[in-house]
Amino acid sequence: MSRSSLVRISVLATGLLVAASSVATSAPVSAQDPGSLTKDLDAILANPGLSGAGVGLVVRAADTGEVLYRHESDRRQQPASNAKLVTSAAALEVLGPDYHFSTTVAASASTTNSVLRGDLYLKGTGDPTMLAADYDALAAQVAASGVRLVTGNLVADDTWFDDMRLASGWAWDDEPFYYNAQVSALTAAPDTDFDAGSIIVTVTPGAAAGQPVRVTTTPPTDHVKIVSSAVTGAPGSGSSITVDREHGTNNILVTGSMATDASADNEFMAVWDPTGYAASLFSAALRAHGVRVLGRTTRAATPAGATQLAARQSIPLHDLLTPFLKLSNNLHAEILVKAMGRARSNTGSWDAGVAAIKTVLPGLGIDPARMFLVDGSGLSRMDHVSPDQISALLIAARAKPWFQTWYTALPIAGDPDRLDDHQQLGRHQPAPTGRRGRRPPRRRHRHATTSSAHGRSERPPLRPGMVHRQGMLTLGAGSETTQPTQSQGNGTAPSHNQTR
Fold first, then answer.
1. What's the pLDDT score for residue 303?
2. Is residue 493 included in any domain, yes or no?
3. Mean pLDDT for each 10-residue chunk of the chain (500 residues)?
4. Which of 144, 179, 181, 365 is deepest in the core (most CB within 10 A)?
5. Are 245 and 353 within one domain?
6. Any catalytic annotation for residue 349?
7. What was the pLDDT predicted at 18?
8. What is residue 35's predicted lDDT score, i.e. its pLDDT?
9. From the candidates 81, 88, 380, 391, which is the catalytic residue?
10. Given this model, what pLDDT does residue 52 score?
11. What is the span of the domain harbouring residue 356?
12. Is the pTM for the entire model greater than 0.85?
């Protein structure tokens, strides 16, 4: 095997939170030494910390497909965010690297003397990159078209996808949080990580002890209602702030206390009804640009023949892969699944999207009859994938014309930064907080990241390990690897999958 060969390691672990930290070797292990590799991996699997856990692991040479190590690698288990490897590869096959989402505004009647005597339609196709600023830009285009008064309704058209907002097998108690946000063809993100269907709730202390805390949202929106009983505490008293959302509503509940000298607390919360959220942002933007709508905000499909007044196109899929995979964004995965269903069968649903994925799996080295997926992010506890299937995908993907784009978009193991500088494509920029690409930690995180990528000698050496109770870690080792050390997972809660 040549020194430039790329070795793929697929690990699927279930049981309690585990890591490969207590097993050490006296010297770095060469990827070209199968004997040493077998010895080290056997030692890792013998770790008492894995007692009671089920582990599937396979190591294959990417250039030849040769199996260098195998341990129950044909067993299907919950893949967690590694399902995104399947979803992203399938999306590149079904939709193509240049696929764009579009958001349009259209009128059902003509405009006379700045008066639109009919309805104004806002139509989405699932764009997860829509920000409040983008809805403002659409409103500016409407105003520039000469419309100042709409006698009818503002109609939100989210019919590109079905109305099933949450997939089968998602945990009910994750529903208020951004990594479990609802899926809609009309949605909005609060930041340039494109956390679609969510808002940022910022809590800061009042001016003095005993006063209420201050609560704001990004973006500002009347779609949610802040219900706060939280108070400001004495200096040095710390913070016990909790932010939640009442199920079935947009009541954001803020409780606890926050010291007068405490730092701001930023919580990322999923909204109830992202269609209404997007429509509320656009409605506010219309008012800001001097466009008055006399009717209500309603929902319906845009009629055939409606006149387009404004439009926005998203970044292409090959650019979206960077925030999707490097930040393991669940909503991007789910939106892409429904987009694939729409592209293949004109039905924007999970069932149709999964069916579309299955049509390309054979070309990605996977027998669709031996893999079970119901969503695209791995949030569902019903998903089942084996390490053998993931390693087959990784090897088959190398022959695809989009491979380098896909490979580069994967997280880089051992790199503490969220994104590479050269990966800042289009307007996608790292969050402007702290170090490059860093932002304040989010509480109640349940963390499982998409697989890391390594393998070329110019990249940092890989440190194998297992991160979560129910998750798969797909690793690559090049001509230089190091002894196993502890994985840096969050570990604050068991198996729940989350984007960061």
1. 97
2. no
3. 43 35 35 76 91 88 88 92 96 98 96 96 98 98 98 98 97 94 98 97 97 98 97 96 96 97 96 98 98 98 97 98 95 98 98 98 96 96 94 95 94 68 39 33 44 43 31 36 29 35
4. 181
5. no
6. no
7. 26
8. 79
9. 81
10. 87
11. 7-98+317-477
12. no
Instruction: State the SS3 of the chain.
Output: CCCCCCEEEEEEEECCCCCCCCCCCCCCCCCCCHHHHHHHHHHHHCCHHHCCCEEEEEEEECCCCCEEEEECCCCCECCHHHHHHHHHHHHHHHCCCCCCCEEEEEECCCEECCEECCCEEEEECCCCCCCHHHHHHHHHHHHHCCCCEECCCEEEECCCCCCCCCCCCCCHHHCCEHHHCCCCCCCCCCCCCCCCCEEEEEEECCCCCCCECEEEEECCCCCCEEEECCEEECCCCCECCEEEECCCCCEEEEECEEECCCCCEEEEEECCCHHHHHHHHHHHHHHHCCCEECCCEEECCCCCCCEEEEEEECCCHHHHHHHHHHCCCHHHHHHHHHHHHHHHHCCCCHHHHHHHHHHHCHHHCCCHHHCECCCCCCCCCCCEECHHHHHHHHHHHCCCCCHHHHHHHCCECCCCCCCCHHHCCCCCCCCCCCCCCCCCCCCCCCCCCCCCECCCCCCCCCCCCCCCCCEEEEEEECCCCCCCCCCCCCCCCCCCCCCC
Cα gap 40→462, rounded to integer Å = 14
Residue 495 in any domain: the answer is no
Res 412: pLDDT: 80
Looking at residue 178, its pLDDT comes to 96
- Annotated catalytic, 358? no
The single-letter DSSP state of residue 322 is: I
Find the catalytic residue in 328, 386, 479, 495: 328
- The amino acid that residue 270 corresponds to is A
Identify whether 64 is part of a domain. yes
Of the residues 84, 123, 326, 338, only one is catalytic, namely 84
* Residues 376 and 448 reside in one and the same domain: yes
Asked if residue 120 and residue 78 are part of one domain, the reply reads no
326 is catalytic: no
Instruction: Yes or no: say if 298 and 157 are a contact pair by the CB < 8 Å rule.
Output: no
Residue 177: inside a domain: no
H helices, E strands: number in the chain: 9, 21
The pLDDT value recorded for residue 332 is 98
Give the CATH number for residue 389: 3.40.710.10
Alpha-carbon span 288 to 481, nearest angstrom: 57
